Amino acid sequence: MSEREPLFSPKNIKSLTQPINLNNPITVQVLGICSALAVTVKLEPAVVMSISVLAVLAFANVIISLLRNSIPSRIRIIVQLTIIAMLVILVDQILKAFAYDVSKQLSVFVGLIITNCIIMGRLEAFALGNKPWPAFLDGVGNAAGYGMILIIVAFFREFLGSGTIWGYPVIEKLGLYELGYENNGLMILPPMALVVVGIIIWVQRARNKELIEQN
Amino acid sequence: MKGLRKLVDNIKPHFSKGGKFAMLHSTFDAFETFLFVPNKTTRRGSHIRDNMDMKRTMIVVVLATIPALLFGMWNTGYQYYLSIGETAGFWCNFWYGFWKVLPLIVVSYVAGLATEFLFAQIRGHEVNEGFLVSGMLIPLIVPVDVPLWMVAVATIFAVVIGKEVFGGTGMNILNPALTARAFLFFAYPSWMSGDKVWIHDMIENGSNVVDGFSGATPLADAAAGHIGSVPCWCEMFVGTIPGSIGETSTLAILIGAAILLYTGIASWRVMFSVVAGGLVMGLILNAFAVNPFMEIPAWHHLLMGGFAFGAVFMATDPVTAAQTNKGKYIYGFLIGFLAILIRVLNPAYPEGMMLAILFMNVFAPLIDHYVVEANIKKRLKRAKLAAKSVSNQNFENK
User: Fold this and answer.
1) Mutate which: A176, A183, A186, vs B, most B CBs within 10 A
2) Of B149, B165, B188, the CB nearest to A185
3) How many Cβ pairs closer than 8 A exist between chain A and B?
C-alpha cells in the first residue's frame, strides 16, 4: 500500500482554494444564482445564508463520501436529497432558535438550500468519488466561494441601496444626505444584484485571462 | 480653417507611434476626425465608402433634436412662470429654461464622453462617436429638476453597463439613453415621477405655486381619471404642457422626424409602425372602454407623454432596432402596441414608452432571426420547385 497522503497535500489544498477563485460556483460555474439575487439586499442575511450553506455542504459532502460505497447508484439522488434535507432542517431549526429575526428575513430561502444546485452538484461530482477528508475540504471551499460572492454583492447592495453597512447608517453619519445624496432604489431590486454579479464576473475574467473562452 | 488644419498637422507627430503622447493616440484621433473628415484610404475589402460616416450621421441626429431642445428650454421657463402665476415674455421664458437645461446637457456629455475616452484608452481603440447622440438625448428625456449628480451616475451606468460591456458603439443591446432613463426611474423615483418633478422649483418650494396649478402631465391626469383637466389636443401638439424637457412638443419632434427621414438616417418603417401599433392598441382600448382613460380618442395617445419622442428618436436607433425590413415592422408595431398597453392598463407606470422600447430592444435580434430563417426557407422551397420543374422538362424532352 502506498504511503498515506498528508492532510494538506497540494491536491487537497487545491480542492479547497480552487472554488474560491478559478472555479467559483457563482461566477464561473454560474450555479446558485437565485439565492444570490434573493438574500443579498442586506449583509446580515447574506452572511447567515453563507454560513448555513457552508454547514450543509461540508457535512453533506462528508456523509455522502462515507456512504459512497454502499449507496446503490440507481437511488443515489434520493439518498443525497434525504441527507441534504435533513441537514437543512437542522440548520433551519437552529436559526429559528438562536437567530429568529434573520431566520424570518431569509424565510423560504433556508428551506430552498435543498434545491441549491451547488450542493447537489458537489455531491454528484466530488463526494461520490472521494474520501471524506478531501470531500470536506471541497465542501468548505465551494461554500466559501459561494459565500464570498454573496457577501460582496450584499455589501454593495446594502451600502448603495440602503446607505448602511451591517445596519450601521454610514451615509447618515458622514452627513451625505444633507449634501443631496440619495440612496439608489435600484440596488434594492433583484435586477441590480444580477448586474453586480455581472461586474464581478467581468473583473474576475479581466484578471484571469484563462477563464475567457477561446472561440 | 486652414490654420486649424495646420495646427492639427503640427501636433500630429506627437501622438503618432513613437511620439511623446503616443498613448493618447485614440483621444487625438477622436478630436481630429471630429474636426475633419478622415482622409484614410482603405487597404483591402470595400474601397468605396460613403462620406456620410458615423460622425456625420450622429451630427445630423443631434441637429434633428435641436427643435425639441429649443422648445423644451422655452417650455421650462413658460411652465415655471405659469406655476408661480406670472407671465413673462418669450425671451424671458427661453433664457430661464436655457440656464436650467444647459447644465444637464454639459453634465451628460462630460460624464458620458469621459467614460468613453477612458474605455478607448484602456482598450486601445478609437473613440466611438455613438455618445454624441446619447449625450443629447439623455437631458431631453429627464425632468428639469433632476439633480446633476444623478444624471452623471445614470450616464456612466448607461455607457458602461448598457454599451461598453457589450463591446462599445454598435454592439449594445439596449438604447443607452433609455438605459440611463430607466436607471434614474427605478433608482431615484422621487425625482423622476409624480406630479411635482416636471416644473422647476416645485419640489423644493412648492409653496410658491399658485392655487389650482397641479403640475401633473396630461398622462397623469388621464390615468387619475381627471379627464376634464387633460388639455386640448392642440396644446398637447404644440407642447405647452408639463413633461420631460424634450418630449412635450409633438410639433418640434415632427420637425426632427422630417430631418431624419429626409436624410434617410432613421427608418420610416419603424416610425410608421410604432404609430400604427399605438393607434391599433388605442382603438382596441376604445372598443372595450370601461373607464374614462380608455375612452380618450386613440390618436390623442400619440400626442401625450413620450410617445412621439420615443417613436422618432429612440425606437429608430439603428443599432438596437431590428435590422431586417420585415422585422422593423414587427418591432415598431409591438413598441407602439405595448407602450399604450402599459400606459393605460398598468397603474404602476403612467408612461409605457420607455419600457416598451427597452423590451423590444431585447427582442429585436430574435425577430431578425425568425425573419431571416423564414426567408431562407422560402428560397429553399423555391429552389426545390425550380429543380423539380427542370428535371421534369428534361424527362419530357427525352
Assistant:
1) A186
2) B188
3) 25
Give the predicted TM-score (pTM) of the model: 0.85
Alpha-carbon distance of B133 to B141, in angstroms, equals 13
Rounded CA-CA distance A155/A46 in Å is 9
3-state secondary structure at position A165: strand
At residue B36 the predicted structure's pLDDT band, cuts being 50, 70 and 90, is low
Average pLDDT, chain B: 85
Q: Is B390 helix (H, G, I), strand (E, B) or coil?
A: helix
Region B8-12: mean pLDDT is: 75
Q: What is the pLDDT of residue A1?
A: 42
Provide, as residue numbers in chain A, all residues whose Cβ is less than 8 Å from the Cβ of B165: 198, 202
Of B186, B116, B160, B169, give the one whose Cα is nearest residue A196: B160
* A190 inside 8 A of chain B by CB: no
Residues of chain A with pLDDT under 50: 1
Between residues B153 and B31, the one the model is more confident about: B153
Helix or strand or coil: residue A122? Answer: helix
Residue A196: closest C-alpha in chain B: B161
Helix, coil or strand: residue A96: helix
Lowest mean pLDDT among B68-72, B215-219, B248-252: B215-219
Q: How far is CA A136 from CA A4, A19, A56, in A?
A: 18, 13, 11
One-letter amino acid of A28:
V
A150 contact partners, CB below 8 Å, separation of at least 6: A26, A35, A36, A39, A40, A46, A47, A49, A50
Name the 3-class secondary structure at B212: coil
State the smallest CA–CA distance between residue A145 and chain B in angstroms.
24
B121 Cβ partners below 8 Å, 6+ apart? Answer: B23, B24, B26, B27
Instruction: Specify the range with the lowest mean pLDDT, choosing from B193-207, B294-308, B363-377.
Output: B193-207
Question: Which domains, from first to last, does chain B contain?
Answer: 2-35 (no CATH), 54-374 (1.10.3430)
